[in-house]
Backbone:
């Protein structure tokens, strides 16, 4: 099976712009979670989508949003970028069934730099 | 989810067993212990999980104390490629939420 893919791998944006990141989960997986990783805050949960619905949300401002399509692919969007949004954004896919919380497979991440 | 405490860093000689401890003294009866690792600049990778019995897979062994307040991840024959940050996470394994709460983890450095 192909793993989780994320595009683009690297991105440079200017403060105030908006950005969209994409994640393709493992075939058959219906749950996609997004995480932000920074040196100061570590790995932090952003949100999770399951069957096109947001199922869980972390403590991030409304500038961070996401969606999931019928084929389980997911996008996350960050509007009005701030310097502090510079981070590695990771996507994880999971079957999503009860009792499979351990089955989370992470993609390589998108490295976003805001200047 | 219960809080976990791990040492900040550890070294291990290549070929020797690496034993990574995790303290989770407030763990609840239905919470599992998960271990993930993150090799530099890659996404985290699932290693193993357990409830109360010791577990072993092709990557590692997980030893959970009888009172479940602590656990140890064992990499039996560490290689240079095992150098990574290792995260111990405690959470329930039921319901719909897939959120993982990562702490600071242990930076394991395998030395040649």
Residues:
């Amino acid at each position: 099976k192909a793993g989780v893919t994320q595009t683009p791998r690297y991105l440079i944006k200017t403060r105030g712009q908006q950005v969209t990141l994409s994640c393709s989960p493992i075939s058959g997986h219906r749950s996609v979670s997004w995480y932000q990783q920074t040196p100061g805050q570590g790995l932090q949960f952003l949100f999770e989508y399951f069957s096109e619905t947001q199922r869980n949300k972390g403590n991030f401002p409304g500038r961070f949003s996401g969606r999931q399509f019928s084929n389980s692919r997911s996008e996350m969007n960050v509007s009005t970028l701030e310097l502090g949004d510079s981070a590695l954004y990771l996507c994880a896919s999971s079957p999503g069934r009860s009792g499979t919380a351990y089955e989370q497979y992470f993609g390589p991440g998108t490295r976003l730099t805001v200047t | 989810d219960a809080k976990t405490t791990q040492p900040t860093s550890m070294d291990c000689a290549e070929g020797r067993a690496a034993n990574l401890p995790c303290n989770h003294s407030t763990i609840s009866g239905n919470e599992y212990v998960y271990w993930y690792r993150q090799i530099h600049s890659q996404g985290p990778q699932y290693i193993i999980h357990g409830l109360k019995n010791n577990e072993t897979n092709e990557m590692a062994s997980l030893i959970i104390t009888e009172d479940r307040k602590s656990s140890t991840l064992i990499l039996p024959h560490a290689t240079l490629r095992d150098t990574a940050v290792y995260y111990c996470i405690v959470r329930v394994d039921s319901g719909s939420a897939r959120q993982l709460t990562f702490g600071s983890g242990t930076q394991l450095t395998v030395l040649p």
Q: What stands out?
A: The first strand of chain B starts at residue 9 and ends at 13. Chain B touches chain A at residues 32, 34, 38, 41-46, 49, 87, 91-104 (CB under 8 Å).
